Amino acid sequence: MNAAPQSPRYDATAIAAHWLLAALIALNLALGLYMHDLPLSPLRLRLFNWHKWAGITILALSALRLLWRLTHRPPPDLPMPAWQRAAAHSVHWAMYALFFAVPLAGWGYSSAAGFPVVWFGVLPLPDWVPVDSAWADALKALHKVAALTLAVLVLLHVVAALKHHVVDRDGLLQRMRPFQS
Amino acid sequence: MIKILLSLLATLALGAAARAQTVDPAASELVFVTRQMGVPVEGRFKYWSAQVALDPRKPEAGSVVLRIQTDSVDFAAPEVTAEAQRAVWLDTSKFPQAVFQSSGIKAAGSGRYEMRGKLTLKGESHDMVVPVTLTQNGSRGTASGSFVVKRNDYRIGEGEWTDASLVAFEVQVRFRIALSGLPTS
Fold this sequence. Notes:
The structure holds two protein chains of two kinds. By secondary structure, chain A is mainly α. Chain A has one domain: Fumarate Reductase Cytochrome B subunit (Up-down Bundle). Chain A has four helices and two strands. Chain A has a two-stranded antiparallel ribbon. By secondary structure, chain B is mostly beta strands. Chain B has a single domain (2-180), classed as Beta Barrel (Lipocalin). Chain B is built from two helices and ten strands; from the N terminus they run αβββββαβββββ. Chain B has helices at 2-17, 78-85, and strands spanning 22-36, 39-45, 48-53, 63-69, 73-75, 97-107, 112-121, 124-137, 140-150, 170-180. In chain B, strands 3-4-6-7-8-9-10-1-2-5 form a ten-stranded antiparallel beta sheet, sandwiched between helices. At the A-B interface, helix 2 of A face strand 2 and helix 2 of B.
């Protein structure tokens, strides 16, 4: 690849994408947990649509982010035991997989339940599953399990990052810290 | 009793004007599309009956009466079906039937007709014009068309739901009625 010495930090685009998506995903996970068993009401209708708009936004931004990630080399790993390195990379790639699986399952669930997704109430998205209650039940379960798994992985990711900062004091957070050149 | 006699007389009178056709419910549908925050959500009525007497040679003598069993409303999502039956929407226990009664049918050229009539829904009646296309193959045929019903004209979606930005006032209705026994020329 390139012979220039590698920066110890992620590039500005990767950092911006990380924090923007972190905020969107955390908000949408919280929204999903709050709204899922609300009784039918104007509030439920609004929250469900906002949740879907945010989910599709996360899906689209994650696709761009993955492209960026695959075409831009991240900084080298800090020194750490091999199992920690392997765990960190596994969690990162599992989270990437879920950035796609969670919104795709939610989108399919919405279609199967007879509610096509219209992004921001303006752009109708195609239904890629039929309107069918068996599909709706299966995709709802998948959406839920995938989202809860993502929530657990996000927590693991945050706890591990804080452990590097507080216990190891190895400056790991500097790699992803925003507003710093 | 008097009502029954009157409707019997009316039926006989209509029968004299144009012979009634037989409707095949299995090949017919009454579908509507609501728009919730821009999202088209399709529903339908499973049970309805139609008395259709159409004579393409003499459309003005024809008549159509459609009776809809309101609690047969059906959406893909069961919670929406249950919601639609509630008092703020169709109030199906108080208003179990919706009726469309034609008052005049005019030819509009090449198998198309303009049907005027009155729709009574949730105790409200309004005049409307329904475009009908009739495709005929021998004595069989299909009458189809679509038109808009404004839900607020019929108090469908009251209280907190009286908000067109949540659920649009315009509801697109689409019908297809399979007929046999059409007069052949």
